[in-house]
């Protein structure tokens, strides 16, 4: 509109002037000037209206005024065309310009990015109840049985019940202790496999992922599956989890422009449905098998299961004695998927970074091994009971999660009502990203923030645990929506790491250059997978059997 008017005005002027030169008549000259004034006025008014409309959308005064500042976007697509692939770094750069809280429009969706610990505290502690919701993308809704898992269920009685089942019943020390032998079996198998590959390069992330998946499958449904079936399902699940995260990490046009959702232009919804149909068939077969085992005779089923696994705990909730089901079948399956997907890739990513940092800092690996030799000894295998006696190794994992937080922007939080953060309004339904990656590198809070120094977690114990009470350190989030699997993540990662370091020496391939760059996706992974070579450390061959 504005461009048409300017064009017309220029043409009017040029046509008018040429006519003026030609005719040079006074009366006609007067009418030209009047017309010019009218056109100019229309142009000025139109310009003023356009500027007003534009500024009222982006300014910091009035109703929308209290929105945080942020870069200007384009009509319809907002800031989408300007996003850079490494969002955590791009958001950190923007925070240098616009401050610790700024806004963006992705399509017509308002997003706010927070990059300071004090504002993170306001969101995750002071106003936690308002911000304790997530906005599920379409792929997540499909894959979580219609959003029936913990992560996507809105705050309310269902979410509380699911969280209670997972945290209190499945992740309690008592129930994790009860299935320690299910983890031990898998760790010992891993040691045997690595020993068989001595001197050959190993893709460490792959080894860790396969071991974790095996461990989690063991804990989920233990002895229900025959060994060959377990291997087949393990291989397929691995592929599926990869695809699941790939789809969740993709920008889906249907999420940005819901009006286009029925068209599913990228086929993401269709692919997500295929994945969940496949996983559902497996869950059905395992659950039916377990119910059959229980029907044959409770005693037999209990004897078959070496320990109480998660499926047994979940089925107990499904079949409440009063006949009322506390858990629906959809919720039960969604929980199984939460543990499987939430527990594997996150922990794998963390441990691959630990090894990468140790390759960069060999003295860290040496100190960790010295600690293990003192606590475990060279003639014993690492046991879970050793973990609490390994403060240095624990600090190595903490420092890794500081420099490489697996979910660097957390899962976007979504306020259930408008709320003031800092001096700005965050409207209901905004997607709020917490840039934990930036907070973990804040020089005000951390000395030499880009250095890998595990000792900092031994020196000052300023609440730098995983509970999210110190807002300078939030690898698992904080508040109501803090990670529900911390205790399992800690046990699995420490046990596996301690065993791999105690049993083997690890080296980069000859002439290989270490690359520590990351790649932003749903998780902050190593851009180039780490390949390292093991050699045995322990003198007794029996310890590898
Ligand atoms: C190193 C390993 C892990 C890391 C770094 C990690 C990190 C996180 C983070 C950052 C969140 C989101 C918090 C937020 O947005 O505020 C989260 C949520 C969650 N995690 Fe983990 N996680 C890990 C392992 C696990 C494991 C092993 C499980 C499964 C047992 C698990 C299950 C969950 C669940 C169910 C949620 C959703 C909680 C809710 O919305 O109430 N995570 N995790």
Automatic annotation (TrEMBL):
UniProtKB keywords: Heme, Iron, Membrane, Metal-binding, Monooxygenase, Oxidoreductase, Transmembrane, Transmembrane helix
Keyword Cell membrane attached: no
Superkingdom: Eukaryota
Binding, heme: 483
Chain segments annotated as transmembrane: 32-55
Requisite cofactors: heme
UniProt xrefs under PROSITE patterns: CYTOCHROME_P450
One annotated GO molecular function: heme binding
Entry's family note: Belongs to the cytochrome P450 family.
Name of the protein in question: Cytochrome P450
């Amino acid at each position: 509109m504005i461009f048409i008017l300017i064009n017309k005005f220029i043409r009017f002027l040029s046509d008018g002037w040429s006519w003026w030169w030609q005719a040079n008549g006074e009366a006609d000259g007067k009418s030209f000037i009047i017309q010019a004034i009218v056109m100019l006025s229309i142009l000025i008014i139109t310009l003023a209206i356009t500027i007003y409309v534009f500024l009222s959308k982006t300014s910091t005064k009035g109703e929308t005024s209290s929105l945080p500042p942020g870069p200007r976007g384009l009509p319809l697509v907002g800031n989408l065309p300007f996003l850079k692939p490494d969002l955590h770094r791009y958001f950190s750069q923007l925070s240098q310009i616009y401050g610790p809280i700024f806004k963006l429009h992705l399509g017509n969706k308002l997003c706010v990015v927070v990059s300071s610990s004090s504002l993170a505290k306001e969101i995750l502690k002071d106003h936690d109840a308002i911000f304790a919701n997530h906005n599920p993308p379409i792929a997540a809704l499909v894959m979580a049985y219609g959003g029936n898992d913990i992560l996507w269920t809105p705050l309310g009685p269902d979410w509380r019940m699911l969280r209670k089942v997972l945290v209190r019943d499945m992740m309690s020390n008592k129930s994790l202790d009860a299935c320690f032998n299910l983890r031990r079996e898998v760790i010992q198998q891993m040691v045997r496999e690595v020993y068989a590959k001595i001197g050959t390069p190993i893709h460490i992330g792959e080894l860790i992922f396969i071991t974790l998946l095996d461990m989690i499958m063991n804990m989920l449904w233990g002895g229900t599956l025959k060994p060959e079936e377990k291997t087949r399902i393990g291989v397929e699940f691995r592929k599926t989890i990869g695809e699941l995260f790939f789809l969740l990490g993709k920008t889906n046009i249907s999420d940005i422009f819901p009006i286009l959702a029925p068209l599913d232009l990228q086929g993401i919804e269709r692919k997500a449905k295929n994945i969940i149909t496949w996983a559902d068939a497996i869950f059905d077969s395992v659950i039916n098998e377990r119910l059959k085992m229980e029907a044959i005779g409770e005693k037999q089923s209990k004897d078959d299961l070496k320990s109480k696994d998660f499926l047994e705990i979940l089925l107990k909730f499904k079949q409440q004695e009063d006949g009322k089901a506390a858990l629906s079948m959809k919720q039960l399956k969604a929980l199984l998927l939460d543990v499987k997907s939430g527990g594997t890739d996150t922990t794998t990513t963390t441990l691959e970074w630990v090894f990468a940092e140790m390759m960069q800092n060999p003295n860290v690996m040496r100190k960790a091994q010295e600690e293990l030799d003192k606590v475990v000894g060279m003639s014993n295998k690492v046991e879970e009971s050793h973990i609490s006696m390994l403060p240095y190794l624990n600090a190595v994992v903490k420092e890794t999660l500081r420099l490489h937080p697996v979910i660097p922007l957390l899962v976007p939080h979504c306020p259930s009502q408008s709320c003031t953060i800092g001096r700005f309004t965050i409207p209901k339904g905004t997607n709020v990203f917490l840039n934990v990656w930036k907070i973990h590198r804040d020089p005000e809070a951390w000395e030499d923030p880009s250095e890998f120094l595990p000792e900092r977690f031994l020196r000052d114990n300023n609440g730098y645990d995983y509970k999210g009470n110190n807002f300078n350190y939030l690898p698992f989030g904080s508040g109501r929506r803090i990670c529900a699997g911390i205790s399992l993540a800690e046990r699995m990662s420490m046990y596996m790491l301690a065993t791999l370091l105690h049993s083997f020496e690890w080296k980069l391939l000859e002439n290989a250059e270490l690359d520590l760059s990351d790649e932003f996706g749903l998780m902050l992974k190593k851009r180039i997978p780490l390949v390292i070579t093991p050699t045995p450390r322990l003198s007794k061959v029996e310890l590898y059997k």
